[in-house]
Design goal:
The structure holds two protein chains of two kinds.
Chain A lengths: L1 H11 L4 H21 L9 H9 L2 H17 L9 H16 L6 H27 L8 H9 L4 H29 L3 H4 L16
Helix pairs in contact in A: 2-3, 2-4, 3-4, 3-5, 3-8, 4-5, 5-6, 6-8, 7-8
Chain B lengths: L6 H17 L2 H17 L8 H28 L5 E5 L2 E4 H27 L2 H10 L4 H30 L8 H32 L9 H4 L8 H22 L2
Antiparallel strand pairs in B: 1-2
The chains are: A mainly alpha, B mainly alpha.
């Protein structure tokens, strides 16, 4: 098993992929600065993970998301450490759908984003409910408390909150990555392992 | 044998505190949180390693206590059960909600402060070196070190692109739709330049044979030195807390 994982990493992490993964980890942690400067109400904290999943591969995306969360803990947001399973699922799922060629068509990107959001909500709900009793120190806490005040259990409230906000967030992130990679020259992207997932008859170069 | 607070000791302490976040009462958790905060000022090994770390700690301290107060008030207002103990703006505060809020806030604070004190008092480069000595591959270590490099560079690069786009008339201050479009005019050059830089760096790594270099055995086989009694004691205590909690659960 360990040998298999090592081989997958070695396959994906060729020369340019190593610095690119490092850049995407940093992008996850600093993308908030761009949205804050533009006054856009988005986090984009998994945009780097999605970029790596599409352009490099699922294993590297899991590594990218997990490392970003560990570093986010180190830089003053310690709760992020406990959400490594969620970013691991985001990386693995996105890498898988990218391999299936979903990032070639806009409607499949939309579908993938929504499915990803639902999956992220399902994985994060038990962590959020059992470890933090639904309090994540963010604006979505109001939604959890609202669902609780309606008489739902804590687990259900956290899940409903996730299902209400995650699909939108992930749909936006998927759309941004789709538009980004679409506008970049494939000749340049082809130096990365996952660029083969983007090749279409009208975009051979 | 020694009693130093080194990196493995701190990791063991984080483990113990995380176990306590689920195994001990909220009163004990509050005491532990206060001890962690005091240790940041009183114990030299837990002091922040940089001004940035010190700022992150202070910021989180203020933020977390504001959030804890918010959690207590909102839970008292919205989770109705038990007797009322006061009111805010005509809305009653309930005892069951208050206790749920206290349990939640104390656990949250203990979990987060444990990991925060570890990171502010441990330089990331030391942690990477320690992990490398424990078998972390050169590629992963390189990714971590490059990430630190990019984290230093990216804010300035984002600012530069932002100013350049503003100068050429990109609608960075216009309506919401225009600003959303401007997001691409900042992200595209950022990602493009990073790919070009990655190709350059990757080529340099390949030419130097980095990717085919075996993991250094010199460091991974290095002796851990004297056994740290403090680390062993903390791990032993963690085991006792886990066993005690399981026994209590089994005995009802």
């Amino acid at each position: 098993m360990l040998k298999y994982i090592r081989e997958r990493f070695a396959e994906e992490l060729t020369g340019p992929a190593l610095p690119f993964v490092a850049f995407c980890i940093a992008l996850n942690l600093t993308a908030g600065q761009i949205t804050a400067a533009l006054k856009i109400p988005l986090y984009l904290d998994s945009i780097g993970t999605i970029l790596v999943a599409v352009l490099v591969g699922p294993w590297s995306a899991v590594l990218c998301g997990s490392t970003a969360n560990i570093l986010a803990s180190a830089f003053g947001n310690p709760a992020m450490m406990f959400f490594i399973p969620v970013v691991a699922v985001i990386g693995a799922f996105t890498g898988y759908v990218a391999k299936l060629g979903w990032f070639r068509k806009w409607y499949l990107v939309g579908l993938g984003g929504i499915l990803q959001g639902v999956l992220a909500a399902i994985v994060s709900a038990p962590i959020s409910a059992y470890l933090f009793s639904g309090v994540m120190m963010s604006g979505t806490d109001f939604l959890v408390l609202y669902f609780r005040s309606l008489g739902n259990t804590l687990m259900d409230s956290v899940l409903y909150q996730g299902l209400a906000s995650d699909p939108v967030d992930k749909l936006v992130s998927y759309a941004i990555v789709f538009l980004l990679v679409r506008n970049l020259p494939l000749r340049l992207l082809s130096r990365l392992h996952g660029a083969v997932n983007l090749r279409t008859p009208d975009r051979a170069q | 044998m020694n009693f130093r607070i080194d990196l493995p000791t701190k990791l063991a302490l984080v483990l113990l505190l995380w176990i306590c976040a689920f195994a001990v009462s909220w009163e004990a958790q509050v005491v532990l949180v206060l001890l962690i905060i005091m240790s940041r000022f009183a114990v030299p090994d837990f002091k922040p390693q940089s001004r940035r770390s010190a700022r992150a700690f202070t910021r989180f301290l203020i933020y977390s206590f504001a959030v804890a107060t918010f959690v207590l008030i909102l839970n008292s207002l919205l989770i109705r059960g038990g007797s009322t103990f006061g009111s805010i703006g005509g809305f009653s505060l309930y005892q069951d909600g208050l206790f749920f809020g206290i349990r939640t806030a104390s656990r949250l604070l203990l979990l987060t402060f444990a990991i925060l004190v570890f990171f502010i008092s441990t330089p990331l480069k030391d942690l990477i070196r320690y992990l490398q000595a424990r078998g972390l591959s050169n590629s992963f270590a390189l990714i971590l070190l490059l990430t630190l490099h990019f984290l230093d560079q990216l804010p300035a690069r984002i600012h530069q692109i932002f100013l350049a786009q503003q100068a050429r008339g990109a609608p960075v201050d216009a309506g919401f739709i225009s600003r959303s479009r401007a997001l691409f005019s900042i992200l595209s050059p950022l990602v493009l330049s990073s790919i070009v830089e990655s190709i350059d760096r990757g080529t340099a790594l390949e030419l130097r044979g980095f990717l085919h270099r075996p993991t250094s055995t010199e460091e991974s086989q290095s002796s851990p030195g004297q056994r740290n009694v403090l680390t062993l004691l903390i791990l032993f205590l963690s085991l006792i807390v886990v066993l005690y909690t399981i026994a209590q659960w089994l005995l009802g």
